[in-house]
Amino acid sequence: MKIKNKKFVIEFIGNNHLKEFLKISKGRLKKLSEYFQTLHLNENQTLITIKIVSNDEIKFLNKEFRKKNKITDVLSFPDEIASGDIAIADSYITNKNNTINSQNFFMLVGHGLLHLFGYSHYDKQSRENMRFLENMLMHLLGLKKIHED
Question: Buried-most residue among 131, 134, 146, 147 (CB within 10 A)?
């Protein structure tokens, strides 16, 4: 499934559970697209790919690109024009009954997109800015905020 607007195209790659989830989440996906369109500073339309991966795959990517030999929840791979790829570990978004948890899914998608658009959380001010933007997104989507003030 793809989300398109004037500034970017987001392509989701995953299994049938993801496809079903995306179908029932169209309203939230539209709001997510509108929110990030305001944060996307590039003039040209860019392509973003979000792939749901296994724990083994995300562990491999984390070791390969960050030199950390452990499973993580989300990895972003930006390029120079505010596009790129995001990998999300399925174990962080999938419930015991193999359905996708909206709270976790949108939290990790939002976090990954913020990284693609140049935001970080490596110092106190950057972390506060990023947390504020994440909480704003979750509020807009009608979900619980992620960070306490």
Answer: 134
Contact indicator for 99, 90 with CB cutoff of 8 Å: no
Full-model pTM: 0.92
**Predicted confidence (pLDDT) per residue in 42-76, tens digit:** 777 788 999 999 999 999 999 999 999 999 999 99
DSSP secondary structure letters along 74-87: EEEEE-TTS-EEEE
Q: Where are the domains of the chain?
A: 2-117
How far is 1 from 10, CA to CA, in rounded Å? 8
Class (C level, CATH) for 2-117? alpha beta
At 65, which helix (H) or strand (E)? helix 55-66
What's the DSSP call for residue 128?
H
Which backbone phi and psi does 118 adopt, to 5 degrees? 95, 5
The closest alpha carbon to 54, from 93, 90, 19, belongs to 90
For residue 70, is it left (φ>0), alpha (ψ between -120 and 50) or beta? beta
**d(Cα 23, Cα 144) in Å, to the nearest integer?**
21
Distance between CA 1 and CA 13 in Å, rounded? Answer: 8
